[in-house]
Design a protein that fits this description.
The protein has 3 domains: 83 residues, Orthogonal Bundle (Arc Repressor Mutant, subunit A); 89 residues, Periplasmic binding protein-like II (D-Maltodextrin-Binding Protein, domain 2, 3-Layer(aba) Sandwich), CATH 3.40.190.10; 97 residues, D-Maltodextrin-Binding Protein, domain 2 (3-Layer(aba) Sandwich). The protein has 10 helices and 13 strands. The strands form 4 sheets. The protein has a 5-stranded mixed sheet. The protein has a 4-stranded mixed sheet with strand order 8-12-7-11. Helix 1 crosses helix 3 and helix 2 crosses helix 3. It holds the Pfam family LysR_substrate. Keywords: DNA-binding, Transcription, Transcription regulation. This is LysR family transcriptional regulator. It comes from Alcaligenes endophyticus.
């Protein structure tokens, strides 16, 4: 890895000569000729009208001006070294942060936990919002990664399949259909049904499933969030169809596979193409089991 160049070669030459009292040593360290080292020191002296060294025979004695300048140059070099160490830590994921946004925690949280276990020094930040806000946050560098069930085509964004999921029937254990092994949508259709608000990808998948089966939608109670549907299920207010990973692991709820064909749902991971080679983003994407657009 290249060394951070916070001080110019003339001042590096001065620093080495002042610290070691030898033009030969400075030339060897910088892989330059001795006349070049001498010329660099003269450049500083001529430009600023000072003497950095007194020439005594073949030796050099640092001047008062040189002694006053030396600790400041040393400080700059130390800062350069610290910056280099910091950048090396970022590359090796010994430092840094990763900001992830999602429409829900169901598909991403396990990957966040696995990444955190592998790279404990990387600070992880999780933020939840709707798809539009998440994608805009990625575009404006407020998030490195975002997930959504909405498929978006954007030349600036890379899209990767994070998960493929199936719809399941979900109800309270006391529901009339709770004992079934498998269910057809026609069996569900007469029962009170909980559904997400318009614009939800889960709602869209449910509507398409009933449409493909040639059925009208059941009597609906609309809910504005996954959490509201979860609580309504617990209260026995109705039944619903949910992707398997969005079903809460509660003992008073049951899930039943569908006998009807329903299109699978997909969760996508998005990030800016121009940022794909940054160390922490690259490492997270490469850690995912499913890759591909």
């Amino acid at each position: 890895m290249a060394t951070i160049a916070m001080i110019s070669l003339p001042f590096k030459a001065f620093l080495l000569v002042a610290q070691h009292g030898s033009i030969t040593y400075a030339a060897q360290r910088l892989a330059l000729s001795q006349p070049t080292i001498t010329n660099y020191i003269r450049q500083i002296e001529q430009e600023y009208k000072i003497e950095l060294f007194y020439r005594q025979g073949k030796g050099l004695v640092i001047s008062p001006e040189g002694r006053a300048l030396l600790p400041r140059i040393v400080h700059l070099q130390q800062e350069a070294t610290q910056i280099e160490f910091m950048l090396r830590d970022y590359t090796r994921l010994l430092d840094g942060e990763l900001r992830i946004g999602a429409t829900g925690p169901y598909y991403i949280m396990g990957h966040i936990q696995a990444f955190k276990q592998r790279y404990p020094s990387v600070q992880m930040h999780y933020w939840q919002g709707n798809s539009e806000r998440i994608l805009n946050a990625i575009r404006h560098y407020e998030l490195e990664i975002g997930t959504s069930s909405v498929m978006v085509d954007d030349d600036a964004l890379e899209r990767t399949v994070l998960a493929r999921d199936e719809l399941y029937f979900v109800c309270h254990v006391n529901h009339p259909l709770a004992k079934a092994a498998r269910l057809r949508l026609a069996q569900i259709q007469p029962h009170a049904f909980l559904i997400r608000e318009p614009g939800s990808m889960t709602r869209q998948a449910v509507v398409e499933a009933f449409s493909q089966a040639g059925l009208a939608l059941p009597a609906l109670t609309e809910m504005s969030s996954r959490e509201a549907i979860h609580w309504a299920l617990v209260q026995g207010m109705g039944c619903t169809l949910l992707p398997s990973q969005e079903i809460p692991p509660l003992p008073n709820l049951c899930q039943i596979a569908l006998a009807d064909h329903a299109e699978p749902m997909y969760e996508y991971l998005y990030y800016l193409k121009e940022r794909k080679d940054t160390a922490v983003l690259h490492a997270f994407v490469q850690s995912l089991p499913n890759k591909g657009v």
